[in-house]
């Protein structure tokens, strides 16, 4: 039976990021297992790659704080490792006057979150994005950017493996939970700490540990 101090189910961006933080804080023996034969087959490799910039979340929430910090930290990570980073910015436009109030609310929310946004007029919008149309005003978020999610996963995997502290098991599906081990399609894996980072499947993994419930 394989064993590790920390066993992480799911090699998406969360599983890899958690492993990275654990290694930084001294963990020395981690297994990350995934049912697929490589990285990025689910949300983390198939998303739009947008680094959101703190506009939408309610001020004061952890999500608002993390979104803004995450944007900055991921941009720095991409620059540090020469990974694709398209600093496109983003414009939020209105279809008609009825949406102007929402635009104002987004501006207030973004400002309260510490995000950088600017209310622009139609002329300024045309300079930034000639193909966009709005009614009177639009909101410009210069810090919104686009990354290549698969390139980020690949870089993180290589960094984690190079520490010698993290092993990746692919083609390994979580089947059931025991007190000190999990049963997988490749046999049992013993753990000191088990981390559920199985994305859209994480509710099923939680249920196997008796800490979630099925909706009818
Ligand atoms: C269409 C779409 C577009 C998005 N666009 C953006 C965006 O532009 N910007 C942004 O910030 N976020 C975006 N997101 C959200 C973002 O992609 C997710 O929040 C993030 O990828 C979740 O990562 P994760 O590691 O939790 O999940 P996942 O990437 O899904 O990873 C979970 C892993 O667990 C594995 N797994 C599942 N079940 C098992 C099992 N039984 N045994 C073993 N392994 C298992 C899976 O194979 C998978 O690799 C988007 C999401 C979607 C769906």
- Bound chemical compounds: flavin-adenine dinucleotide
Computed structural class: alpha/beta
Q: How many domain regions?
A: 2
CATH architectural name of the largest domain = 3-Layer(bba) Sandwich
- Tell me the name of the CATH homologous superfamily of the largest domain: FAD/NAD(P)-binding domain
Q: What is the terminal-to-terminal distance?
A: 36 Å
The CATH class of the largest domain turns out to be Alpha Beta
Largest sheet: 6 strands, mixed
Q: For the largest beta sheet, what order do the strands appear in spatially?
A: 9-2-1-12-11-10
CATH-derived topology of the largest domain: FAD/NAD(P)-binding domain
Attribute tags:
216 residues; alpha/beta; D-Amino Acid Oxidase, Chain A, domain 2; 2 domains; 3-stranded antiparallel β-sheet; 12 strands; 33% helix; 25% strand; binds flavin-adenine dinucleotide
Report on this structure.
This protein is α/β, with parallel strands linked by helices. It folds into two domains: 2-47 and 149-208, FAD/NAD(P)-binding domain, CATH 3.50.50.60; 50-147, D-Amino Acid Oxidase, Chain A, domain 2 (2-Layer Sandwich). It is 33% helix and 25% strand. It contains six helices and twelve strands. The protein has helices at residues 13-24, 62-80, 100-112, 122-128, 149-162, 202-208; strands at 2-9, 30-33, 50-51, 85-86, 90-92, 118-121, 137-141, 145-147, 166-169, 174-177, 181-184, 187-196. It has a six-stranded mixed beta sheet. A three-stranded antiparallel beta sheet has the order 3-8-4. It has a three-stranded antiparallel beta sheet with strand order 5-7-6, with helices on both faces. Helix 1 (13-24) runs parallel beside helix 5. The longest helix is centred in the first third of the chain and has 19 residues, at 62-80. The chain is elongated and about 65 Å long. The mean pLDDT is 96. Flavin-adenine dinucleotide is lined by residues 9-15, 33-36, 41-44, 47-50, 52, 173-174, 197-201.
């Amino acid at each position: 039976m394989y064993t590790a101090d920390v066993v992480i189910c799911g090699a998406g961006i969360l599983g890899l990021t958690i492993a990275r933080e654990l290694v930084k804080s001294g963990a020395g023996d981690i297994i990350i297992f995934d049912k697929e034969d490589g990285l990025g087959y689910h949300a983390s490799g198939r998303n739009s790659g947008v680094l959101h910039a703190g506009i939408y979340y309610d001020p004061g929430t952890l999500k608002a704080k993390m979104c803004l910090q995450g944007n900055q930290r991921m941009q720095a990570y991409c620059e540090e490792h020469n990974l694709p980073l398209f600093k496109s910015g983003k414009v939020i436009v209105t279809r008609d006057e009825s949406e102007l109030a929402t635009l104002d609310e987004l501006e207030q929310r973004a400002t309260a979150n510490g995000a950088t946004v600017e209310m622009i007029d139609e002329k300024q919008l045309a300079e930034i994005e000639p193909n966009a149309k709005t009614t009177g005003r639009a909101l410009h978020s210069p810090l919104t950017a686009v990354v290549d999610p698969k390139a980020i996963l690949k870089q993180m995997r290589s960094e984690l493996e190079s520490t010698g502290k993290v092993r990746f098991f692919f083609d390994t599906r979580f089947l059931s939970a025991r007190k000190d081990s999990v049963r997988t399609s490749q046999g049992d894996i013993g753990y000191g700490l088990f981390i559920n980072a199985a994305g859209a499947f994480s509710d099923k993994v939680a249920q196997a540990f008796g800490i979630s419930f099925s909706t009818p």
